[in-house]
Automatic annotation (TrEMBL), chain A:
This is OB-fold domain-containing protein. Residues 55-122 form the ChsH2 C-terminal OB-fold domain. Pfam families: OB_ChsH2_C. The lineage of its organism: Bacteria, Bacillati, Actinomycetota, Actinomycetes, Propionibacteriales.
Automatic annotation (TrEMBL), chain B:
Residues 276-393 form the Thiolase C-terminal domain. Residues 26-223 form the Thiolase N-terminal domain. Pfam families: Thiolase_C_1, Thiolase_N. CDD domains: SCP-x_thiolase. One of its GO terms (molecular function) is acyltransferase activity, transferring groups other than amino-acyl groups. It comes from Nocardioides acrostichi. This is Lipid-transfer protein. PANTHER family: ACETYL-COA C-ACETYLTRANSFERASE, NON-SPECIFIC LIPID-TRANSFER PROTEIN-LIKE 2. Transmembrane segments: none annotated.
Length: 144, 396
């Protein structure tokens, strides 16, 4: 069985996974999550655009901030038994969008700093088979 | 744009806690206390604005009507506001607008809630187009995790420490000791905070506010009614900001999974800075004129953010003020003399009104055991989900 994304159309899987954004063909503003096309117009109030193209967002970015979750979040988060804490990071992409994500398995706040470089990976959710995007720290000195 | 003031004739609260009663009982307790404080008969009230509670069924969705009926139908007009943490300020703004339009003379604004223990959770069901549901479903991203990210930025960018955050709690716990409406009235030490469990690194349990039951009410009247009623030297509302973000909103905001794209240039000011700017502009008052502030310490670190967002100090300097004792009662610019959310816990639709109650008492010189001496100008600030935020400026 091939694992499927936890949410349809938000990210690609495979060796070089990427978040899927939408770019306004009029003002070139990128959006994530990709919900602008369905709404039918560009949210930039100075733009009249109504057409979007799907784009893969940059796979690397810099940490805007980070934390972890030591207490089990309420549903609809699906927690493993027993619950295991996990890291969370907000990452600024070169497109200027800050995107939240869990931190890759095996990494936590001690491995992160504001401004450090991270890369998008795709891993199974904490329960079940479905895949979710995560942020993985890059070795010091790696370029964004 | 300078806006005419309206008069705060009376304020009242139901103490915060876990009392096991209905939000209606809390609300009318606060409303009757506020009316009594104002010396205004209920039959004079021509407008009731309720802060909606989303946790108490239909009666909570139509809170304005619920309170009006519970106080005894008197034919008053009603309105109900919901704006997450800014609910009370938006309700107040609605009342102010009708008064300034000459459509109301006496308004009662009431917010009350009962709140379950633990993390605030999204609505049930499969809600794939609701960001508040998605952040839990996809990421397990709780409110404290957002607070922790803001706190961590202070540490990595400005050198804040866990001890600094703990000192905010120590200060607010001390401030709230004599406040009869506060839920927690106990001194807390830095060691207590640092010894409590980490919820989301770097925030400990005692860095994060609890959820509470509580109610607050404000009686607003027109200048004309105040003169007729012989109210002398009253507290005035000089400004209320309920502005929304401007595009692009580049600071990560609850409950969103991402920001707008900056387009390579950061906006002139952040959303939270724009809340303060808007209220100062309405009131024609400068940050340097402020004597006392009640800000939304959902976490200890957020109090420090707010001091900067409101222009009470420069970006990155809040810890220095805290360490110098400037934000303690008796200091240069006391912050959260009520004890803040640290001593109250959050009762969402009541909280912004509770801030106004506290500043009214402060500006009247009647905040017993926690008085900021000579306070004449006070500011509140809060922010909630989905681009809601508010600030109220009071003067005397």
């Amino acid at each position: 069985m091939t694992a499927t994304p936890a949410i349809e159309g938000w990210f690609t899987t495979g060796d070089q996974p990427a978040l899927i954004g939408e770019r306004c063909t009029t003002c070139a503003t990128s959006y994530f999550p990709p919900t602008a096309a369905a709404a039918g117009f560009c949210r930039n109030p100075r733009c009249e655009g109504t057409e979007f193209e799907q784009v893969e967002l940059s796979r690397r970015g810099t940490v805007w901030s980070y934390t972890d979750t030591r207490y089990q979040p309420p549903p609809p988060y699906s927690a493993p038994e027993p619950f295991a804490p996990f890291g969370l990071a907000a990452v600024e992409l070169p497109e200027g969008i800050v995107v939240l994500g869990q931190v890759a398995a095996g990494y936590g706040p001690d491995d992160l700093r504001v401004g450090m470089h991270v890369e998008l990976v795709v891993e199974p959710e904490h329960t079940g088979e479905a895949l979710i995007w995560r942020w993985k720290p890059l070795a010091e000195g790696s370029a964004a | 744009m300078s806006v005419q003031p309206v008069i705060v004739a009376g304020v009242g609260m139901h103490p915060w806690g876990k009392w096991g009663r209905s939000f209606v009982q809390y609300g009318i307790h606060a409303a009757r206390e506020a009316l009594q404080d104002a010396g205004v008969p209920w039959t004079d009230v021509d407008l009731v604005v309720g802060g909606e509670t989303v946790r108490n069924g239909y009666a909570g969705y139509v809170a304005g009507s619920t309170f009006a009926q519970a106080l005894g139908w008197n034919g008053a007009r009603i309105a109900t506001s919901y704006a997450a943490c800014a609910t009370g300020a938006q309700a107040l703004d609605t009342a102010r607008a009708r008064i300034l339009a000459g459509m109301s003379e006496v308004a009662v604004v009431v917010g009350a809630d009962t709140t379950p223990k633990g993390f605030l959770a999204p609505n049930a069901g499969e809600r794939w187009d609701d960001p508040d549901w998605l952040r839990f479903r996809l990421l397990g991203m709780t409110n404290p995790a957002y607070f922790a990210m803001y706190a961590r930025r202070r540490m990595d960018l400005y050198g804040a420490t866990s001890e600094d955050f703990a000192q905010v709690k120590v200060k607010n716990a001390k401030h709230g000791l004599a406040n009869p409406n506060a839920r927690y009235r106990k001194e807390v030490s830095v060691d207590d905070v640092l010894g409590s469990a980490v919820v989301s690194d770097p925030l400990h349990l005692l860095d994060i506010c609890a959820t509470s039951d509580g109610a607050a009410a404000v009686v607003l009247v027109s200048e004309a009614y105040a003169a007729k009623a012989g109210l002398t030297d009253p507290v005035r509302i000089a400004g209320i900001a309920t502005v929304t973000p401007t595009f692009p909103n580049t600071v990560l905001d609850m409950p969103m999974l991402a920001t707008d794209a900056s387009g390579g240039v950061d906006p002139e000011r952040t959303f939270k800075e724009s809340i303060g700017d808007a209220v100062y502009a309405e009131a024609g008052i400068e940050p340097g004129d402020v004597d006392v502030a009640e800000v939304y310490d959902l976490s200890t670190a957020l109090e420090l953010d707010w001091m900067e967002d409101l222009g009470l100090c420069k970006r990155g300097e809040a810890e220095a003020l805290l360490r110098a004792g400037d934000t303690t009662i008796g200091g240069r610019i006391p912050v959260n003399p009520s004890g803040g959310l640290a001593c109250f816990g959050e009762a969402v639709p009541a909280q912004a009104l509770a801030q106004v109650c506290e500043l009214t008492w402060q500006l009247r010189g009647r905040a017993r055991g926690r008085q900021v001496e000579g306070a004449r100008v006070g500011i509140t600030a809060n922010q909630g989900l989905f681009g809601h935020g508010s600030s109220v400026l009071l003067t005397r």
